Known about the structure:
Elements: E1 3-10, H1 12-16, H2 20-29, E2 33-40, H3 44-50, H4 60-67, E3 72-80, H5 82-90, H6 103-107, E4 116-118, H7 122-132
Helix pairs in contact: 3-4
The structure holds inosine-5'-diphosphate (IDP) and magnesium ion.
Amino acid sequence: xxxxxxxxxxxxxxxxxxxxxxxxxxxxxxxxxxxxxxxxxxxxxxxxxxxxxxxxxxxxxxxxxxxxxxxxxxxxxxxxxxxxxxxxxxxxxxxxxxxxxxxxxxxxxxxxxxxxxxxxxxxxxxxxxxxxxxxxxxx
Length: 139
Ligand code: IDP
Ligand code: MG
């Protein structure tokens, strides 16, 4: 295993319920270093660009409406095995299938409003980090 960087997001459903501190605190407890953190609101167009890989899926319109419905937090996270490690802490996409104690099991409302995002591979992590951050900004 190696030190990796990954892109996390706290989605609008979690920000609107006041869960930023809880989720960021959990990431710190799990050993992630926060290299960058931004609170922002995505436009519909930006949400479509971020989730372009899903543009043919039936939930694309609804997903990008949801992701542009309110503020999000973008997090640049670093840790040993950060990409798989973050997804393990997040839990399965569908909260009904998420393991007990994972963020999605604890906080997600449904399969769409599932509170958090994490990159799924080194290539997507690199692209998704660049979507929100300049590497030169990292501490
Ligand atoms: P992931 O976030 O666990 O990587 P993906 O399959 O990449 O899951 O889907 C991206 C996002 O699209 C999910 O986090 C969720 O918000 C939404 N999504 C995925 N599958 C469905 C679905 O079947 N119905 C509605 N929304 C979905
Ligand atoms: Mg995904």
